[in-house]
Amino acid sequence: MNAALVIIGLATLGALALGLAARRGVRMTLEQWTVGGRGFGGLLVFLLTAGEIYTTFTFLGGSGWAYGRGAPTYYILAYGSLAYVISYWLLPPIWRYAKRERLLSQPHFFSRKYDSPWLGVLVAAVGVVALVPYLVLQFQGLGIIVSVASYGAISPTLAIWIGAATVTIYVMISGMHGVAWNAAVKDALILAVVIFLGTYLPLHYYGGFSEMFRAIDAAKPGFLAFKPTGQSVLWFQSTVLLTALGFFMWPHAFSAILTSKREQSFRRNAALLPLYQLILLFAFFCGFAAIMQVPGLTGAQADQALLRLSIQSFDPWFVGVIGAAGVMTALVPGSIILISAATLLANDVLRPLQPELSDSAVGLTARALVPLIALLAVYFTLNNPPTLVQLLLMGYAFVTQLFPALLCSLLPRNPMTKSGAAAGIIVGVVVVAFVTETKIGFADMLPFLPARVGDINVGFAALILNAVAALLVSLATRPAPAAAASPSS
Amino acid sequence: MTAVRWLAALPFLGILVGTAFVNQVEPLVFGMPFVLAWIVGWVVIGAAAMAIIYALDPARVLAEGEADGERQ
């Protein structure tokens, strides 16, 4: 047993202990379990809404994309920034409505706003479908971190099982309370590690940032700017816009919003979070530094770039610290996702079907679903999924389809009917599923689609069709008096 | 206040539109490829814009008063 493994093991036990301790003094109703009783202060809300930024996705995926693809990784820095600008006006009305109506989840919000339980069920289904790849992403990252940082002593498969079991236990017992304090520890640890690595590695191996980028530019011309086709500027623009709109459409992001005690937290965070997010740059620097130092990682292996370079550069104990930070970036988002998915299924799919169920029965069901969802994600993780960023983009393409209906529901006079909202969401999701499915077949033969239009993010194209369908169906199903009053328009 | 709100449009213009015109590596800025430094610059400008909007927002004062007056 090496030093790295001991430190990673201790961190995992620490996370479990902290998660379990958080339960003390809380009567665990469904509202406590899923949104922390709506009692979290500004700092915890900040950390929970920032949880999205520092996941295994950014830690390994961001550096992995810098290593394997170059410029396309810049999108990760851009979308969060725009999403926070939108959040300034988007989140306070959502929070106010959710608080007044005592809502627990995103589908709940839709079903109440559109007065249609079935729309809620549809939204819950979309949410779960998008959350599963996101959870797979966290588990997959966990497997990579533990197996690489333990110098192969623990296989990825075993690491995934241990990680899934840890999250399942403390989520079942402590719910959102268990997540909050682990989120604080995770952010402190990951910030310190990423800033150190992102500064040390370029200076140590290249003598400076300019020197590093010049060396990469000379070795791989065009790698550091967007390509003329494929992942071009057009791809960047459509992907950034799509993911910025989808940022708060994640069911677990919604849960994070609902944990807040006051709406003012969101406005202040809108100015702070973009700066906090800039620390991602250092993750990119790690990936760029790895290009000339640990060459030859292809495909999904690129996600290992940061860790491989770390092993080559540091003593085992420090690799252990990096590994521990990495484990936390998988466990914390993983547990938030689990809580959301379980709440969606119990509160928003089961309850509308069985309205006579009591609150405590729904709460127990939600907790009982946690291990089942974790098992499902483990199953998908072990069955050879694509790279981390691809997984996330697929989930984003799904959840963003909820944006038009959500935005319209916040307007003083909602132009969208419930049938219109449902039609739009269904069209969007079907288009994403169809194109993702057929493109997987294509990608095996052609790494880059030649057509210029092919550069536009799939989810973005689906979003436009979604809005058109929603508009047409809303016009068709609009109550008669409005249409009779103005026949010419 | 209404006029100040338009500051929020700046990062969208800079990142979504502007990037198309600066897709190049040289000159390096703070050691970073130009297009990356461009995006970083707009993230910082975006944060500054939101800080100004927050400071001048009447809704902030309203919400603060509400939070003080309301006891759960």
Summed up, what is this model?
Chain A has helices at residues 3-21, 30-35, 42-50, 56-68, 75-100, 106-113, 117-149, 156-174, 176-206, 209-219, 233-246, 251-258, 264-277, 280-293, 305-313, 316-353, 359-382, 388-399, 403-410, 418-445, 458-477, 480-485.
Structure description:
The complex is a heterodimer of chains A (489) and B (72). By secondary structure, chain A is mostly helical. Chain A has a single domain, classed as Sodium/glucose cotransporter (Up-down Bundle), CATH 1.20.1730. Chain A is built from 22 helices and no strands. Chain A has helices at residues 3-21, 30-35, 42-50, 56-68, 75-100, 106-113, 117-149, 156-174, 176-206, 209-219, 233-246, 251-258, 264-277, 280-293, 305-313, 316-353, 359-382, 388-399, 403-410, 418-445, 458-477, 480-485. The longest helix of chain A is centred in the last third of the chain and has 38 residues, at 316-353. The model of chain A is unreliable at 440-450 and 482-489 (pLDDT under 50). Chain B is built from four helices and no strands. In chain B, helix 2 (9-17) packs antiparallel against helix 3. Chains A and B meet through helix 5, helix 10, helix 11 and helix 13 of A and helix 2, helix 3 and helix 4 of B.
Largest sheet of chain B: none
Structural class of chain A: mainly alpha
| Oligomeric category | heterodimer
Strand coverage percent of chain A = under 5%
Within the CATH hierarchy, at the fold level, what is the topology of chain A?
A: Sodium/glucose cotransporter
Q: Tell me how many strands of chain A there are.
A: 0
Helix content of chain A: over 70%
Q: Total strand count of chain B, please?
A: 0
How many angstroms separate the termini of chain B? 31 Å
Reconstruct the topology from this structure:
The complex is a heterodimer of chains A (489) and B (72).
Chain A: H1 3-21, H2 30-35, H3 42-50, H4 56-68, H5 75-100, H6 106-113, H7 117-149, H8 156-174, H9 176-206, H10 209-219, H11 233-246, H12 251-258, H13 264-277, H14 280-293, H15 305-313, H16 316-353, H17 359-382, H18 388-399, H19 403-410, H20 418-445, H21 458-477, H22 480-485
Chain B: H1 2-5, H2 9-17, H3 34-56, H4 58-69
Helix pairs in contact in B: 2-3
